[in-house]
Amino acid sequence: MEGPLYEQIYNYLMGKIQSGELTSGSRVPSEKELAEQFRVSRITSKKALEMLAAAKVIERVQGKGSFVAEGWSDSSQSVQQSAAVPQKWKLVGLMLPDFADSYGLRLIHGIEERCSELGCHMLMKITYDKSTEEEEAIRSFQQLGVDGFIIFPVHGEHYNPELLRLVLDKQPIVLVDRYLKGLAACSVYTDNRAAANELTTYLIQQGHSKIGFISLPAENTSTIEDRVQGYTDALLRHGHRLESRYLMMNLYSSVPRSFEERNIKIDFENVRAFVELNPELTAFVAAEYNLALILREVLLNMGKSIPEDVSIVCFDSPHNAFGNHMFTHIAQNEFDMGRRAADLLHQQWNEQEVVYQNIVPHQFIKGESTL
Predict the structure, then answer these.
(1) Residue 286 in 3-state DSSP?
(2) Residue 107 exposed, middle or buried by CB count within 10 Å (0-12, 13-18, 19+)
(3) In the predicted model, is pLDDT for residue 61 greater than 90?
(4) Which ranges of the chain would DSSP assign to H, the alpha helix?
(5) Angle 332-336-339 (CA atoms, 0-180°, nearest 5)?
(6) Is residue 25 pLDDT above 50, yes or no?
(7) pLDDT tier at 82 (50, 70, 90 boundaries)?
(8) Are 306 and 333 in contact (CB under 8 A)?
(9) Boundaries of each HTH gntR-type domain copy (predicted)?
(10) Domains of the chain, with CATH numbers?
């Protein structure tokens, strides 16, 4: 088997379920058992089980273990036959670059909940923000006979041909988080331009006039392009010049599989150089939560106080039931975005007219990184 270890475990268990070796109600090996079998950490085996639970393939019962969910084939059939869900069920192929508590997990929950209400089963594939993985996932889902796709497209300059073919062939498809310019594809996303405008305007109202912006490269990705534009809109509307030297858009550590020590260290040094080169900056807009974390560490390492010396705002944040957030940020309504995506797919199955551009409202949340 190829791919990350937790994905190997995920595919191993899916194979046993689809083949009928594990049927509805069957006990699934525990985190400990899987860790020993595959010689991995329990963190790795736990993530595989969490992915299956998020896709409603298994149910996890505290104190008892994990069990195959109702609705999966109880007979011993081939993978292809068992993947053909009974007539009342539709099969949805969900693809996304990765997921975390800061962004992605609640999106999956929203999609799964609404799919379940609509009588759908959901299969999930992580693409790690690679176009080749995205292409392969589309082909794999087609072989399994999925009835529609919900796709969080990869970050990149070019659209992959398999995705283009789905759109041109008018297959049931919904894009989440971003839209693809020039393509008539149904999309559900946050108004990133308005959200970035709101963050930047807040900093200006706090008295900041020298505001930096840090992000991944835009590379024809609507999410980043719109956030840059929103930042620009706010500056110009309040009479401030757009200084190109205040934009740093060459960071990569927030890309899936990249938030690791080596890449974080590279981005840390690059951000530090950027801050040292522009000492007049008193506030920053970070386009990603992980980049805000790196920026915060850089500033603290330089002896700066947050928010007394420098303010930071960003997009997304881990859920916090107690209401204390490290950063002032835009909270995207991932859960509703997910539910809306499933609804739009359902409308396409019923040959109903759908709106291509669907914006889900966001929320501004005050955190500890601004005064």
Answers:
(1) strand
(2) buried
(3) no
(4) 5-18, 31-38, 42-54, 79-83, 105-117, 131-144, 161-168, 192-205, 222-237, 261-277, 289-301, 334-349
(5) 140
(6) yes
(7) very low
(8) no
(9) 3-71
(10) 1-84 (1.10.10.10), 87-190+333-362 (3.40.50.2300), 192-331 (3.40.50.2300)
